[in-house]
Amino acid sequence: MSELAPPVAALIEEFSKLPGIGVKTAQRLTFHVLRSPAEQARRLAEAILRVKESIIYCSRCFNITEHDPCSICQDPQRDRQVVCVVEEPLDVLALERTGAYKGLYHVLHGALSPLEGIGPDNLRIKELLERVRQEEIHEIVLATNPNFEGEYTANYLVSRLKELKPELAPRQLKITSLARGLPIGGDLEYADEGTLRRSIEGRLDLGA
Questions:
Q1: DSSP per residue over 81-103, as a string?
Q2: pTM
């Protein structure tokens, strides 16, 4: 059996490193690229390079953006007293599609997972607590995923935010979460817009 040419083998290897892509899928993607016109392959390569070279994290909310601060943080029409905490930038896109939420965001870039060695220092939790201290925030909406890691992260954030309350007085800080209706064990980014809209509109007061 003939061996693969080194450039083909290298592309298969790189595709297989992507999340959710196994060796078989990586092979199919590679041969799709091989069969595609050179211009299409060039556009794909250029798009990947542009993402790496031009996309940064907003210094305020840590969403992905081309400009700092991001367009949501700059928007004067957003309610600056409400901040929705999500795990990933894709969760921001999911909530924005509903049109039901008009506040700001804070992206953690993951969830706490002791088994995987992901602790508070690996996420943007310190930056969230500093925002609560420095900005006139009156409500934190916890919109972590409805799975074990997401719930664990939300509970940790509630405890840390409660610790801040003496510092914030007389300002009151309300802590809420998305209303249930989201499937347990699922990811926010995959929920349909109607379910997300009802969840954000009917969010629950955590009594913190």
A1: EEEEEESSHHHHHHHHHHS---E
A2: 0.80
